[in-house]
Every structure is written in structure tokens, then in C-alpha cells.
């Protein structure tokens, strides 16, 4: 008898923090969002809500600009989303973020990471093995502040995530949303 069950799917969303300010005398970890970032983050949140991309869990860098980005995104979502702060994604390489993702419990099907470049861009390019070719070219060109990469994986649990195994579904930036 053929198995009609669809393969297990996990969705990973990588969100770079929104545009931050550079106040004099403020440590990097404590930098707040700039006005442009305070406008872009809710727009990305509204996009996430409209497209039904609401995560089961958000893992957010402990940096103030990432925390503020998540707060503004979360306000645009139709219901409260579980969030976890993670020092392990503050300005780290893609491999360190991948380690954090691999430890996420299997019950989480849609995962959002709110972090920083260059690690976010490196991770997105490391994981994307195919998908939307136009979006992939834009991603290769630049992963701007408040950019959102959405990738699907045919895996049963996050510990199985591997380089090249993701399918880039879309890559959205505030500039693209302004034009739509």
C-alpha cells in the first residue's frame, strides 16, 4: 500500500535585525534601532502575518537592536509567539548559528532566528541548495537590515539540518515591501 503521507517539513526564517542607530558612547550590544528600523520591523511583521509565516518559536539575539526588532515584529502578529533569547547568535559565524538551530526541539516546525550579519547572510547561503532563483540572486547580492529569508527543509527534526538542504522560498526586504 503506498504511503500518502507528505514528507516531514521544517520552515526556517532568518531575519536580520532592522536598521540600528550608532549613538556615540553606546556599546555595540546596546545600540537601539534607528527611525528607519522602527518603520521596517513592523512592516516585516505585517508581511509575516499576511503570508501565514508565523513561527512556532523565535530565537533572538540578546543585542538591543535584535530585541527591539523582534518586539516590533511580534506586535504585528495575530497571536503571541514563544521567544527565546540567545547569546549564541550575537555576531557569530554561520556554523555557530547552525549549532543553535540543531538544538531546537522537534515539536517546533516553523523557526525564526533574529540575528546579525555577516552570519545571517553566510547561514542563508550555506543552507540554500535551491528554490527561487531570483530570490537567491538577490540574497547573494546583499542581506540588508530587516531582510527575511524563508527556507523549507524536508527533515523530521532540526538536528538533521544540513548545508545545501534548504529550498529558498522567498527573500523579502523592506525596499521590496515598499514597492508592493
From TrEMBL:
<dbReference type="InterPro" id="IPR029033">
    <property type="entry name" value="His_PPase_superfam"/>
</dbReference>
<dbReference type="Pfam" id="PF00300">
    <property type="entry name" value="His_Phos_1"/>
</dbReference>
<dbReference type="InterPro" id="IPR013078">
    <property type="entry name" value="His_Pase_superF_clade-1"/>
</dbReference>
<protein>
    <submittedName>
        <fullName>Phosphohistidine phosphatase protein</fullName>
    </submittedName>
</protein>
